[in-house]
């Protein structure tokens, strides 16, 4: 039983960290990671409870079993949001908070994850499952893309409701480890759906990157967890060994999946007096991580909406060569022509540099031809919204941002953004300007094909 629990734990823990490392600033990925890692914690606690029989573990576990459902409800709400919207998340946050209060209140009434069936268990089940099903219907109605994700969401959410019924309302008919394993299948399915959605949203490949991470995780999990399981085979499932099993797996998988950020922390300690060396090493790590995410034949049969979205992503990643390298726009025929013109090798980094130069040129074309360097009229909006934040590095809305280090024109733009331009307006201008540049690049692509 401990071996099966370890497998479910390792899968959930790895997938949660994998989604988090893709982009911790993306709400969908952060929430999905919270759901997966909290479910992994439930698996570990349940195994410890069954091995040691401590009542305190069951009283803690009853609260944790509600966390994955709350997180997945928040994920489904995020997936159902219209793309490129600046609408606030106040309503979604209120809904998630309400579900959390009711679910945790039910946990307090239940007192423990163990039977017999009590009213608190029913409250937890209803609070987690009913909103998740409603959010799933909302996501499907709004047309989550890519299309296969919709099927994943429907199947996984239905299994999730059933899994919670078995997990939160233990009737003694199904062993606890089996209930966890069945819910683990659902959680993994939902995690894969979120990964597919994120790869589609970023225009990246997923299979190679995820396969490499999974294989590396399986190796370290087998090496570290296998030793403890061998010891348990001879001595029995003692509480100390069960705790050692899950802590070993958690640390080994975390070190493997979070190798890049951990290397960054180590660099800050070891190379504290060499900022240039740290920056170069960080760039190399980001570049290496981006290589498996480059999609083959990415612009084949891409529709206008997707092309515009890819252009918007490329503009947003203007200052990050590693992310630009994974953008499908590096496969534009004009990039091939530019590389050939300057005799540069056809390598991912060269393509990323060429894409950045191409974007800079297209942004410059948006500048009004009145001879000035900066203006605030309507005809300047597209140029201002892209050039100053992305090319000139004006971060007007960042916390504790100052105009220090900016040239006089950029300082003037910074002051204008801070005093006269709401952040939502800037976002709308950037989206409109991205459409203009996308149409320009799209016309070149069509001409090259013809």
From TrEMBL:
Keywords: Membrane, Transmembrane, Transmembrane helix. The chain crosses the membrane at residues 6-21, 28-48, 60-79, 91-113, 119-137, 149-171, 177-200, 212-234, 240-259. It comes from the Bacteria. This is Transmembrane protein.
């Amino acid at each position: 039983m401990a071996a099966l629990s370890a497998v479910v734990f390792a899968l959930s823990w790895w997938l949660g960290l994998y989604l988090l490392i893709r982009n911790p600033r993306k709400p969908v990925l952060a929430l999905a990671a919270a759901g997966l890692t909290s479910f992994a914690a439930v698996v570990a606690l349940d195994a410890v409870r069954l091995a040691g029989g401590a009542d305190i573990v069951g009283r803690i576990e009853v609260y944790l079993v509600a966390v994955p459902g709350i997180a997945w409800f928040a994920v489904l709400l995020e997936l159902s949001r219209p793309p490129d919207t600046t609408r606030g998340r106040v309503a979604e946050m209120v809904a998630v908070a309400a579900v959390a209060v009711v679910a945790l209140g039910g946990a307090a009434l239940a007192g423990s994850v163990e039977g017999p069936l009590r009213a608190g268990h029913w409250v937890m089940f209803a609070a987690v499952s009913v909103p998740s099903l409603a959010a799933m219907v909302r996501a499907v109605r709004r047309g989550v893309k890519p299309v296969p994700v919709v099927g994943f969401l429907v199947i996984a959410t239905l299994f999730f409701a059933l899994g919670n019924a078995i997990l939160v309302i233990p009737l003694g008919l199904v062993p606890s480890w089996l209930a966890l394993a069945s819910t683990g299948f659902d959680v993994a399915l939902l995690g894969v759906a979120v990964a597919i959605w994120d790869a589609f949203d970023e225009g990246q490949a997923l299979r190679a990157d995820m396969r490499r991470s999974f294989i590396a995780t399986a190796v370290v999990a087998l090496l570290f967890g296998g030793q403890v399981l061998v010891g348990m085979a001879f001595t029995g499932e003692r509480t100390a060994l069960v705790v050692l099993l899950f802590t070993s797996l958690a640390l080994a998988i975390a070190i493997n999946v979070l190798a890049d950020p951990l290397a960054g922390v180590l660099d800050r300690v070891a190379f504290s007096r060499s900022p240039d060396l740290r920056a170069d090493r960080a760039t190399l790590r980001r570049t290496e991580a981006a290589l498996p995410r480059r999609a083959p034949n990415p612009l084949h049969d891409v529709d206008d909406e997707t092309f515009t979205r890819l252009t918007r992503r490329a503009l947003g990643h203007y200052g990050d060569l590693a992310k630009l390298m994974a953008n499908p726009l590096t496969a534009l025929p004009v990039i091939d022509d530019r590389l050939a013109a300057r005799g540069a090798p056809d390598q991912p980094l060269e393509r990323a540099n060429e894409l950045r130069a191409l974007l800079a040129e297209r942004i410059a074309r948006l500048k009004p031809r009145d001879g000035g360097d900066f203006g605030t009229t309507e005809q300047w909006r597209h140029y201002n919204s892209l050039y100053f934040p992305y090319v000139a590095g004006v971060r007007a809305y960042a916390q504790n941002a100052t105009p220090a280090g900016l040239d006089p024109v950029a300082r003037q733009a910074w002051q204008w953004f801070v005093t006269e331009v709401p952040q939502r307006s800037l976002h709308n201008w950037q989206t409109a300007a991205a459409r203009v540049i996308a149409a320009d690049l799209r016309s070149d692509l069509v001409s090259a094909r013809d």
